Amino acid sequence: MKCEICHSNDATTAYTHIVDDAKKTLLLCANCVPKSERSERAEPSEAQAQQHVPVLVKKVKVEFGTAPSPETSAAGPCDGCGMTYEQFKKVGRLGCHRCYAVFGAQLERLLKRIHGADAHCGKGRIDERAAPRPAEALDELRSELSKAVEREDFERAAQIRDRIRTIEAEGQRPVGEAER
Amino acid sequence: MNIGELVGNRAQWLSGEADGDGIVVSCRARLARNISTAPFAPKATVDDQERIIERVLNAAQHSRHMCSASFFKMNALQESERLLLVERHLVSPALAESKGQRGVLFNRDEALSIMINEEDHLRLQAILPGLQAQGAWNAVDALDDDLGSSLPYAHTDRWGFLTACPTNVGTGLRVSVLIHLPALVLTEDMERVTRGLMKMAFTVRGFYGEGTNPVGNLFQISNQSTLGVEEGKIVEMLTTITQQIIACEKDAQDALLKEARSQVEDKIWRAYGLLSHARVLSSQEFMNLLSAVRLGRSLGLVKTVDSSFMNHLMIITQPSHLQMERGGELAPEERDIYRAERVRSRFATRPADGAGLP
């Protein structure tokens, strides 16, 4: 498998970035693995916190592992329907909506290749337009937050944090039509 | 509605309205949708499929667009009846041939339909005559809003509507136009057109969609990509592209007439003569002859038959339509004889003679 940053060297290291409970693993080559001091800087220091720098996350943790061989690189099986990525590659069809979350990393590349885009633009779900957003939206925002922190884009991270808080606050209200 | 009634039914999309000088037959917009509480087709059990059908029928009953629609379960139909639905573009060949609990729901005018348990739980379709891609999209969009208010669609903000095949994810929208391009075929320009369309992420297919060969110079042009471009934009692009292709086809038709008027006229009127008098017509020959007469209509040479007449003729001369009308199975050679008989009788009572269609 190629490095997910430079896409040219073979990936040797599984770089896992954990922000609160959101975990994101990237398979990287030796050149692209962040230096340890850089990753430490991602966590706001006590001094920064006292200088009114917003505390974005409770804890940031980085783990290094060995990149899995191509045979085992596929995630899964899907917790919704039991389909593995290998099975999907054979039949070309996914087994349930959960597959999109479980095989997210692989599908992201595939979708980009098929459609030349990796994000939806257009209609939303009608029952979502009035009702609170589902858990998937929160998952996505949390992963976006960890990415923003990773690249030290704290302004963006603060925006995302605020959005998560708003959605979570809305989630406390009685659920409307969404789960009908 | 009884399935037998379909044979003589006048589907709205065949009316010839807005046909761009006889060049555009119809426009279709389809949406792929799945329910988040059930596994997708590859993992769905018969029980899941039953439950999906029940939920969709229930949702459709409460929709103002499909509350009086007829439902047909594929398993309850004969093969020839399933093929009849394919010939009328109400179901895909895949739905007709696949196994399991599946069906189709459609209105009497055949403009709106829902395939249940095809590749996705729902395939909503709107099909209108002529170049009305916007109209088809508006119709299917409104139906989708109705169904989406009671069905929990599988959808995420990031990837839009989730589909069994990643090629449909996002909008789930495939919008297509059925177009007659005889002059561009004759001038060998279709390859150039196809290449140009591919660059804009549009694709050219045959009469029956995916995996079918073009017959009678009829092509289906549709968008390839469903992710990252808004529905309205796709519809607008298809409309603009189609208008450009119509202009190219008209130019090519005019050029042909200018360069070889006698030969072109001869080809058209010979085709007209054969359709009016032949005793045996294979499906392929019929479609080619009809294409020549369509060209004659586009060029203003043939005035006795119109698009509506030819569109209906194209549907009622297909194998299952012939067999259903005849009331029994026909061997291929019997079919060709009966086809010629049907065509002859229609030409003998064509609308311009005041007889109209039944």
Structure description:
The radius of gyration of chain A is 19 Å and the shape is globular. In chain A, 41% of the residues lie in helices and 12% in strands. In chain A, strands 2-1-3 form a 3-stranded antiparallel β-sheet. Chain A is α+β, with helices and mostly antiparallel strands and 180 residues long. In chain A, 24% of the residues are buried. Chain B is α+β, with helices and mostly antiparallel strands and 358 residues long. Chain B has helices at residues 46-61, 79-87, 93-97, 133-148, 182-186, 190-199, 231-277, 283-298, 307-316, 319-326, 332-348, and strands spanning 24-33, 70-73, 103-106, 112-116, 122-129, 155-156, 160-161, 173-180, 202-205, 218-223. Chain B has an 8-stranded antiparallel β-sheet. A two-stranded antiparallel sheet of chain B has the order 6-7. The two termini of chain B are 18 Å apart. The interface between A and B is large, with 40 and 43 residues.
What's this model, at a glance?
The complex is a heterodimer of chains A (180) and B (358). Chain A has 180 residues and is α+β, with helices and mostly antiparallel strands. Chain A has helices at residues 36-41, 46-50, 85-91, 99-102, 104-115, 126-130, 135-150, 154-171, and strands spanning 13-19, 22-28, 60-66.
List keywords for this structure.
heterodimer, A: 180 residues, alpha+beta, 3 strands, disordered C terminus, B: 358 residues, two-stranded antiparallel ribbon
Low-confidence runs of chain B (pLDDT<50, min 5 residues)?
353-358
Number of strands of chain B: 10
Widest sheet, order of strands of chain A: 2-1-3
* SSE arrangement of chain B, N to C: EHEHHEEEHEEEHHEEHHHHH
Series of H and E elements of chain A = EEHHEHHHHHH
Major sheet summary line of chain B: 8 strands, antiparallel
* Order of neighbouring strands in the sheet with most strands of chain B: 2-3-4-5-1-8-10-9
Number of helices of chain A: 8
Number-wise, the strands of chain A total 3
First-residue to last-residue Cα separation of chain B:
18 Å
Mean pLDDT of chain B: 93
Percentage beta strand of chain A: 5-15%
Structural class of chain B: alpha+beta
Helix count of chain B equals: 11
Output mean pLDDT of chain A.
73
